[in-house]
Amino acid sequence: MTATFDPKANMVFCRKYKQDLPKMPNPPFPNRKGEEIQNTVSKKAWDEWLELQTMLINENHLSMINPEAKKFINEQRDKFLDNEDYERPQGWTPET
């Protein structure tokens, strides 16, 4: 029996971009939330989030062992991925 290639198998309907886009190969976290993100967020949106997350952590001097910092980053992640108003680094301008 030969396996058939399904191009949709590597796609996800991205909650940020509202379209089918390539999905992440693995969940970003080893838990239910990671699986949810893998199934609802494209690789493109996740890569953009990681870039923004790095800027937020650096600019705000966050320590990710601090529970309040983790809470802040998790809230900003969900807002970013859901197209809500999220914290932007100072001097940040969107790419055109």
TrEMBL record:
Q: Which UniProt keywords apply?
A: Iron
Q: Which GO terms describe its molecular function?
A: iron ion binding
Instruction: Give the superkingdom in one word.
Output: Bacteria
Q: Which InterPro entries match?
A: Fe_traffick_prot_YggX, Fe_traffick_prot_YggX_sf
Example GO CC term: the record gives: cytosol
Where exactly are the transmembrane stretches of this chain? Answer: none
**What processes does the entry annotate via GO biological process terms?**
cellular response to oxidative stress
Per the UniProt entry, the signal peptide is none
Short name of any one Pfam family annotated for the protein:
Iron_traffic
Similarity section: Belongs to the Fe(2+)-trafficking protein family.
Its function, per the record, reads: Could be a mediator in iron transactions between iron acquisition and iron-requiring processes, such as synthesis and/or repair of Fe-S clusters in biosynthetic enzymes.
Q: What is this protein called?
A: Probable Fe(2+)-trafficking protein
